[in-house]
Amino acid sequence: MRLTQEDLNSERFKDYQSVFEACTAQDRSRLAIRRMKIDDEVLLLTVDPMTLETGLERERCLSCAQTQEQDYASTRFFQALNISRPGLFNAGLTHGTGDGVYLTGDLCPSGKPLDRNFIEEVIKLSPMAPLALAVSGTWLVRHKIDFAWLLNKVQHQELKITWVNHSYTHPYIPGLPNQQNYLMKAGVNLDQEIFETEKQLILQGAVPSVFFRFPGLVADESLQTQLRARHLIALGADAWLVLAPAPRPGSIVLVHPNGNEPQGLRLFSKYLRDGKMPLPFRSINEAP
User: Fold this and answer.
1) Is residue 37's pLDDT more than 80?
2) How many CB atoms lie within 10 A of CB 82?
3) pLDDT tens for residues 47-64?
4) Could you tell me how far CA 147 lies from the centroid of its own chain?
């Protein structure tokens, strides 16, 4: 479904909560992971446990009931939820299956505009290319024109974007040890960081995915456990271009089109020119 801006007026957008329910409608089944209310209309954020596709649906159009996670242990969704890595850096899914690469771009808070040239380069190379954009809520609030431009590309079928949650404030203090920084910084409320970003995405007309990228790719075991409890898949990267060797087939590529890391975008263009970027671009939903 697509909601109008009147529907999504923030004052009418209430009671956002995490749920886990099995829902059916005609010949299809989904899992509901969030419930919200707009006026008297209850909406659900649902996920297909096999394809990982998400959608916003009216609860009255579905038949839903609480369910048990173990009933879905064999699905791609739960297999991906249970991917874990030791240590603080690069939790979760870092490499995908098959040929090509999984292109992801992080939109951390930034005072600079979106690098639209990067987006246009992707479209020119591969119209309707899949691209996962990890959006911080603060970036979205401050770059509504850029975000509307991205939505326009999606609506005109020039690009297929998967909206990844990148936290709301993306906390970071230079010089502070990783164990006390990012989302492990004192006073950070993970639910707030997750849900406020999801709400902003919905308010601006996008549908949140089931992926979450930790700021700095840094998270301890406790954060990973809390994230999984909210039914989100931790998304890492094995080809953060400014930090890693050239991508290989199946790599999850990470660049920053938010203006903060232009050298990564230059490397992206160079790898394309030199034939060192495995193609095609793949949807992140296919990676687990």
Assistant:
1) yes
2) 11
3) 999 999 999 999 999 999
4) 14
Spatial contact of 272 and 124, defined as CB atoms under 8 Å apart? no
Q: What is the CATH number of the domain that holds 173?
A: 3.20.20.370
Number of domain units in the chain:
2
CA distance 34 to 2: 17
Q: Which helix (H) or strand (E) segment is 140 a member of?
A: helix 137-142
- Supply 124's token pair: 């020119």
Site of tokens 């671009």: 281
Q: Cα separation of 90 and 244, whole Å?
A: 12
58 and 140 fall within a common domain:
no
Residue-range definition of the domain harbouring residue 177 = 83-286
**Cα 88 to Cα 265: distance, rounded to the nearest angstrom:** 26
Helix axes 221-229, 190-203, angle to 10 degrees: 50
Q: What is the Cα Rg of the chain in Å?
A: 18
Separation between Cα atoms, residue 233 and residue 227, nearest integer Å = 7
Question: Which residues make Cβ contacts (< 8 Å) with residue 199, sequence separation at least 6?
Answer: 13, 16, 36
The token pair that represents 257 in the structure block:
């089109």
pTM of model > 0.90: yes
Q: How do residues 61-102 score in pLDDT, each as one tens digit?
A: 999 999 999 999 999 999 999 998 778 999 899 999 999 999
Residue 43 and residue 126 in one domain:
no
Amino acid at 198: E
Report pLDDT for 39.
80
Considering the domain architecture, whether residues 134 and 214 belong to the same structural domain is answered as yes
E-state strands within the chain: 13-25, 28-38, 41-47, 54-58, 63-66, 102-107, 129-135, 159-165, 208-212, 233-234, 239-240, 252-255
Residue 161 tokens read as 């974007």
User: Does residue 2 lie within any of the structural domains?
Assistant: no
Domain identity same for 117 and 35: no
Is the residue at 1 inside a domain? no
